[in-house]
Amino acid sequence: MFVKIKKYMTSCDTVTSEYDYLIEGNTSKKKRRIKMKRNIIIAAALAAVLSCTACGKDIVGKSDESPLTPATTAASTESPETTTTAKATTAVTTTADGESEETTTTETAANTDTPAASADQGSAAGGSGQSNSGSSGNTAGSGNAGGSGNSGSTAQEAAPANRDYAPSPEDYNYGPAPAQYSNDGLTYIQGVLIANKSYSLPADFNPGLDPTCQSQFNKLQSDAAAQGLNIWLSSGFRSYDYQNQIYNNYVARDGQAAADTYSARPGYSEHQSGLAIDVNQIDDSFIGTPEAIWLENHCHEYGFILRYPQGKQDITGYKYESWHIRYVGTDMSYPIHDSGLTLEEYFGIDSYYH
């Protein structure tokens, strides 16, 4: 634009020189024509200058007065469980100096408005549900960051729910249900032999340690050893008479009320069923050891359950025993473990001496 203005001014100077020359020659007709031409050129130059000035004011005015218009792009990833949307908003600001600043803001949000999954799949949307890992609900993280220059945040995705599936008969650690007996006086619920303070075993019931229970324990022991853990069988099957001897010794030492909190009366012990095993140290020194922690978290993978968990004494009738596991087979151990319930709670039975 300024080049054109300079060109117009040069033309004006040329016309003016011609005009002055003609004045000296007293050529009046040509004088008027050249003067008109000069005026037209000057008018065009002035118009160009005014137009440029007005254009410059208009640009500055828009920069100072008009609000920012952000350009937003959205990328969505959808799945049956959660939908996470990430928005990147970029705003360009023109300053009075003619420079621009770019501000980028990234926002993430987790959309949990999805159909709720079943409780055994450990998924809940907009509510609570029970998962296979024993946890409930849906967790999603969101981040928000902004400022001048290049800034942003990384979207947090909902962690997938832990799923714990019972092994099939073809799997290495599959544990079939233990053998069932037809002896009088035995109580079975869903194929599980019950022995607690409410349900007794006949005095002449002496099955010995169940072979499947022994085999599955051997697998458990081997896999624990592969992880540097030492788990051994301290006590397995106990006959009615042997349990009677043990129990009476505890009563003589601590009294019956105390003995009933940690030892079963004869005929009410799970050890007589041939399906219970005590491991390592049979006392509180085993609590909190790496072996005890691993056993509680993994024994169900081999068909066992932790029979007397912590905080359940009023339900099971016995104090916490981190060393006592009971074999029920993997088809039962997985759902019982995943429910977080004791055997009594799972089957809706009680355990107290009637």
In words, what does this structure look like?
This protein is an alpha+beta fold and 354 residues long. 35% of the residues lie in helices and 16% in strands. The protein has helices at residues 2-25, 28-65, 211-226, 240-254, 256-259, 290-298, 313-316, 330-339, 343-347, and strands at 71-78, 83-94, 100-111, 144-145, 188-189, 192-193, 233-235, 276-279, 304-308, 321-327. The strands form three sheets. Strands 1-2-3-4 form a four-stranded antiparallel beta sheet, with no helix packed on it. It has a four-stranded antiparallel beta sheet with strand order 7-8-10-9. β5 and β6 form a beta hairpin. α1 runs antiparallel to α2. 23% of the residues are buried.
Quick structural gist:
Helices cover 35% and strands 16% of the residues. It has helices at 2-25, 28-65, 211-226, 240-254, 256-259, 290-298, 313-316, 330-339, 343-347, and strands at residues 71-78, 83-94, 100-111, 144-145, 188-189, 192-193, 233-235, 276-279, 304-308, 321-327.
**Mean residue pLDDT:** 73
- Count of β-strands: 10
Q: Report helical residue fraction.
A: 25-40%
Number of helices: 9
The topology string of helices and strands comes to: HHEEEEEEHEHHEHEHEHH
For the sheet with most strands, the description reads: 4 strands, antiparallel
Gap between N and C termini, in Å?
A: 107 Å
Structural key phrases:
4-stranded antiparallel beta sheet, 354 residues, 9 helices, 16% strand, alpha+beta
SSE blueprint:
Layout: H1 2-25, H2 28-65, E1 71-78, E2 83-94, E3 100-111, E4 144-145, E5 188-189, E6 192-193, H3 211-226, E7 233-235, H4 240-254, H5 256-259, E8 276-279, H6 290-298, E9 304-308, H7 313-316, E10 321-327, H8 330-339, H9 343-347
Antiparallel strand pairs: 1-2, 2-3, 3-4, 5-6, 7-8, 8-10, 9-10
Helix pairs in contact: 1-2
